[in-house]
Design brief:
The complex is a heterodimer of chains A (354) and B (220). Chain A is α/β, with parallel strands linked by helices and 354 residues long. Chain A has helices at 10-18, 36-40, 44-49, 51-65, 78-82, 122-136, 149-157, 159-168, 170-193, 212-232, 249-254, 268-275, 287-292, 296-310, 331-344, and strands at 23-25, 28-31, 69-72, 86-88, 96-99, 141-144, 197-201, 238-241, 259-262, 281-285, 317-324, 346-348. In chain A, 63% of the residues are buried. The longest helix of chain B has 21 residues, at 37-57. In chain B, strands 2-1-3-4-5 form a 5-stranded parallel beta sheet, sandwiched between helices. Classes of the chains: A alpha/beta (354), B alpha/beta (220). Chains A and B meet through strand 5, helix 8 and helix 13 of A and helix 4 of B.
Chain lengths: 354, 220
């Protein structure tokens, strides 16, 4: 199979996408978060705890795969960690939460927004962002991901407690979300200053966990504040939500993002049909079954179907993985995803057939 | 409507309406009026939890609502438990459940546990980040019928296969049905590691457990 050569740099391509100009091919965004440690050949704990290595790993992954975005994130607990949650760092896997940050909601009143230059491992993210921007920022956007408000708040309280307190103590949950939102905004400011582009990752604010009403009442006001700050820099508001986003799609879009990244259970066909005229979308090749356990042929075929379905999203579509590309995915599967954009997505966007 | 029906209906409603205090009060009142404890459990508390499960399945309830219903369920259960005949709790079958080693995401597992409790099964919750052998040992010690495992992480999913291999090594594979689930898990993966079943969500897990245990009863 002959694979056409790229005729634009990733940055030119993404800029064309954002301004509605024609592209040589569809942009492609495998969400490489911890896998870059594999490319650099170091245990995951090292990229999770050393900003220089984290940056170098992402640059190495970009040079290896040539995807259209660098996406810097180790785990979505970076902000809750900076605000008091304790993490555990396995030698060769992403960090996970060991203890939530707040023993009770009483502690909300003393909770302060994170300082990205001091707290937790946020300085490490900024260092990695700066390094990647310095090395390859002229040709590719470096995206650094703060978690969304619900995710930070739920991690600070423990997910079970947070879910109950939405009903039992909504006032103080709003207060908690308010402080979390300010933390996110502080992180956004610092990411932009480092030359990066922020993109929210909101695994807990998912339609797999919470209802449309809870999303609307609790998350939308926070998201609007964050987008407003992002827009003040002339940047687009980007956001990824894991799991099934169908139940919360309406309020999610009402919050006003400029590009959403959807996970595999959400379905591109469904999105194109119901919401394709509202917001561009990115997604959603199945992470575990296809990227990790599939063959390059399976990846190419699923990507081809995604492109078919995505081409019907009127506002625009970017090929991507549904969620994080699993750490141990075979490199040839990631190659296959990037290659599929070249094979099946030439001269993008495709005219929409009705 | 008789007083009995009225009380049990109100009790079920308290559970599905997430009203823990009302559930406790109504369960006490039902027992005080002489309604049999098993009826209070099955026709009141568990019926309400069944209604909550249905609302979850149809997309009206989500995790917060279900957790609050389960608080009412467990609070009501505490009231009724001392009055129940000993064997009634385990009559429907026993499940050990946990999140496999290397993963601490347990909200999905908790929802499955709640729904299994709500369906009247006896559930032994091993928690999260559960070592492989703990699943096997706990299943033996508790005389379980089913081992249920969950994970959200692709780096932990192979551990489910490890647990099944440990069962094989110890010659225990036929003693337990193995159920797996979680975001990265697919039917194909479940088959590959030799699990007996896969459930895409909590209601599906309950259905599968029901079908296994009823066929077991029929076979016996």
């Amino acid at each position: 199979m002959s694979v056409p050569q790229d005729r634009m740099s990733p940055k030119e391509r993404v800029n064309a996408f954002l301004t509605g100009q024609p592209m040589d091919r569809i942009p492609v965004a495998p969400l490489l978060l911890n896998h870059p440690a594999r490319v650099l050949g170091v245990p995951v704990k090292q990229t999770n705890t050393n900003g220089e290595l984290l940056g170098k790993a992402h640059v190495a992954a970009y040079r290896r795969y040539g995807q259209d975005f660098i996406t810097i994130l180790t785990c979505t607990a970076n902000l809750s960690e900076a605000m008091g949650a304790k993490l555990f760092f396995p030698e060769d896997d992403a960090a996970r939460i060991d203890q939530p940050g707040l023993k009770s909601l009483d502690e909300v009143h003393d909770l302060r927004p994170a300082d990205p230059y001091k707290d937790g491992r946020l300085p490490l993210y900024l260092e990695a962002t700066e390094l990647a921007v310095r090395e390859v920022g002229n040709e590719v956007f470096v995206i650094t991901l703060p978690p969304g408000p619900i995710t930070v708040a739920a991690q600070l309280r423990g997910v079970d407690s947070f879910m109950r307190e939405i009903y039992k103590d909504p006032e103080r949950i709003h207060k908690l979300l308010d402080v979390c939102t300010q933390s996110i905004i502080n992180f956004v400011d610092a990411i932009v200053k480092a030359g990066g582009v922020p993109c929210l990752a909101e695994p807990v604010g998912s339609g797999s966990l919470i209802s449309k009403k809870v999303f609307r009442d609790f998350n939308v006001p926070c998201l609007k504040r964050i987008y407003e700050r992002i827009h003040s820099y002339g940047l687009p508001a980007l956001i990824h939500i894991c799991g099934n986003a169908r139940p919360i799609m309406e309020p999610w879009l009402d919050s006003g993002p400029d590009l959403i990244s959807v996970d595999w259970p959400t379905g591109l066909d469904w999105y194109a049909e119901n919401y394709g005229d509202r917001c561009p979308a990115l997604g959603n090749v199945t992470p575990a079954d296809t990227m990790l356990l599939g063959t390059p042929e399976k990846v190419r075929e699923e990507a081809r179907v995604c492109i078919e379905q995505g081409s019907r999203i009127k506002k625009g579509y970017i090929l991507g993985s549904g969620c994080e590309v699993p750490l141990n995915s075979p490199p040839e599967n990631i190659d296959a995803l990037v290659e599929a954009a070249r094979i099946y997505g030439q001269n993008w966007p495709r005219p929409i057939a009705n | 409507m008789s007083e009995r029906e009225e009380l049990l209906g109100a009790l079920a409603k308290a559970v599905v309406d997430m009203e823990e205090d009302a559930a406790v009060e109504l369960a006490r009142k039902a027992l005080d009026t002489g309604i049999d404890a098993s009826e209070v459990l099955f026709d009141g508390i568990l019926k309400g939890m069944g209604m909550a499960s249905d609302l979850y399945d149809s997309g009206e309830y989500f995790v917060p609502e279900l957790l609050l219903c389960s608080d009412a369920l467990y609070a009501g259960l505490e009231v009724v438990k001392p009055h129940l005949p000993k064997e009634s709790a385990s009559g429907r079958g026993r499940v050990v459940i946990g999140v496999v080693q290397g993963d601490t995401h347990d909200i999905g597992k908790n929802i499955v546990r709640i729904m299994l409790d709500g369906a009247g099964f006896e559930v032994i919750d091993l928690g999260r980040d559960v070592p492989y052998d703990t699943f096997v040992n706990a299943a033996i010690e508790n005389g379980a019928d089913i081992i249920a495992m969950s994970t959200l992480m692709t780096t932990s999913m192979d551990g489910m296969g490890t647990v099944i291999n440990r069962l094989l090594e110890r010659g225990l594979r036929d003693r337990f049905k193995v159920l797996v689930g979680g975001a990265p898990i697919s039917p194909a993966f479940a088959k590959k590691i030799g699990a007996d079943g896969y459930a895409r969500n909590a209601p599906a897990a309950v259905e599968l457990v029901k079908s296994w245990l009823s066929s077991q009863v029929t076979a016996a």
